[in-house]
Specification:
Glucose Oxidase, domain 1; globular; nine-stranded mixed sheet; binds acetylphosphate; 9 helices; alpha+beta; 354 residues; 21% helix; 19 strands
């Protein structure tokens, strides 16, 4: 039993028409025909456009800190946040509570005056404010830079392209002597407040964001986009989320998300953008424009072809209000993922500092 064609399942199975080399890369299979970054930072690169941020960009970003204002761009992680119904709500429970010790537990015997609480948390890594890593999306069995989908298993996780490639590891620093350039997502960011420049807050459902709209917004804001910038895209759509939505209503809500059309990725290429984060479930417009194109063409074009990370469910309203008030849409962003080896994405608490 298995698959006899892309996206078709059958009781028969044919061997794929490609092979996989000793580096875990597909040979003779999918290769992007359009813009892509495969090989741009080496055949073994697993950081993609985050290579566009180095020490110089971070120094530039730090020079933008003027007022000392700090904005967390994360949702509270609870059952109320926007979340697709295939991704369960977070579970939060306690292994130990001080109240157990107050009423008498074995641990209160030795020192009845010392008590503590210990808790535990379980959640889908794609279930709140997050980064999509490159192993999140596969097209024709292939991921960014040509890595084979078989490198990610339920048992072993992502043996390539895991989110930990965006963190400087202890081994990297202390043993291999790698310089501290692998801490991704710390740099200069620019907020593009599209509802403000387009005169509709939120953007109407299913609005396709294209290059012209992004240029128009940057110009209206007087924002200079620089190579290596992380682009934060506000649509205003998150405000219409209702935690009491039924699964059908959730489908309808997410299925009308405004977001990037494929042309917006050309804007990212032209500006050497190092990552894109939005206040929607997928950055990408839903439903995508062209039914003949790949199912999620922006996910494929960004994560698979370009190695361009996507941030989803970022909370941008308070930051946008402050940017409108002081006219400064550029700031320093500190947004590293959690270091979960083998994970394909990560929740995080992005911090904008102005
Ligand atoms: C997919 O598109 C598969 O998921 P997400 O929007 O969470 O990246």
């Amino acid at each position: 039993m298995g698959r006899d064609d892309y996206a078709r399942y059958a009781t028969s199975w044919s061997a794929p028409d490609y092979s996989v080399d000793e580096d875990g890369k597909v040979v003779g299979g999918y290769e992007p025909e359009g813009p892509n970054n495969w090989g741009r930072w080496g055949d073994d690169d697993q950081r993609g456009t985050q290579n566009l941020i180095g020490p110089d960009q971070r120094v530039r970003a730090a020079s933008l800190v003027q007022s000392g204002k700090v904005f967390s761009l994360a949702l509270p992680i609870d059952a109320n946040g926007p979340r697709f119904h295939t991704r369960p709500a977070p579970l939060h429970w306690f292994m130990m509570a001080g109240s157990d010790q107050v009423v008498g537990s074995p641990y209160s015997a030795a020192d009845p005056d010392f008590q503590w609480n210990d808790d535990m948390f379980q959640m889908p890594l794609q279930g709140s404010t997050q980064w999509d890593g490159f192993a999140h999306v596969i097209y024709r069995d292939t991921m960014y830079n040509g890595y084979w989908a078989g490198n990610v298993t339920a048992f072993g996780g992502a043996s390539v392209l895991g989110i930990e490639n965006h963190r400087e590891s202890f081994v990297g620093r202390a043993v291999l002597g790698i310089e501290n350039h692998r801490e991704s997502f710390v740099g200069r960011a620019v907020l593009l407040d599209l509802p403000r420049s387009e005169g509709s807050d939120p953007l109407p459902p299913a609005t396709v964001i294209n290059s012209a709209m992004l240029d128009r917004c940057a110009e209206a804001q007087g924002a200079a986009v620089e190579p290596g910038d992380i682009a934060l895209i506000r649509t205003g759509y998150m405000a219409s989320w209702d935690p009491s939505f039924t699964p059908d209503q959730q489908e309808e809500y997410f299925g009308g998300s405004p977001g990037f059309g494929v042309d917006a990725l050309n804007w990212c290429d032209r500006n050497d953008i190092s990552a894109v984060a939005a206040d929607t479930i997928g950055v990408e417009v839903l439903v995508p424009e062209d039914p003949e194109d790949r199912k999620h063409p922006v996910h494929c074009g960004a994560l698979v072809d370009r190695g361009l990370p996507l941030g989803e469910f970022w909370v941008l309203d308070a930051l946008a209000a402050d940017c409108a008030a002081d006219g400064r849409y550029e700031f320093m962003l500190v947004a590293p993922p959690l270091n979960i080896p083998g994970a394909v994405g990560s929740p995080l608490n992005p911090i904008a500092i102005k």
